[in-house]
Amino acid sequence: xxxxxxxxxxxxxxxxxxxxxxxxxxxxxxxxxxxxxxxxxxxxxxxxxxxxxxxxxxxxxxxxxxxxxxxxxxxxxxxxxxxxxxxxxxxxxxxxxxxxxxxxxxxxxxxxxxxxxxxxxxxxxxxxxxxxxxxxxxxxxxxxxxxxxxxxxx
Length: 154
Prior knowledge:
By secondary structure, this protein is an alpha+beta fold. The chain has one helix at 2-38, and strands at residues 76-77, 81-83, 89-95, 103-108, 118-124, 126-134, 140-144, 149-153.
């Protein structure tokens, strides 16, 4: 009987270890299940729900204020197109409008805005201030996609 008692004692130790290990395994599985609900498939932590309202995203990085009349004689070229009466002087723009179109300009020796008629041409991106000097020999000035031009010097 001593041998049977020793076997039973060993068996009960194994059963206790398996029981403890089984409980530990269940706890471990439960922990991983909770962690799994807090992360997505890539393992990134998901944002916790918030009761605060958030502001809508801005539509543009920066919206400049409307130009103040700091131009010579109040001369401002606001729209896209060909200007035959721009006159001699230095014109300044804050570059492209916020709509994403690049600002383009040409000084012309004709009223037709094609590159073969350009005396000088250039462009600018959003918030890139540019200056152009128009001359007495220019027939016209063409602009497209630019913020308003202001005459800042003669």
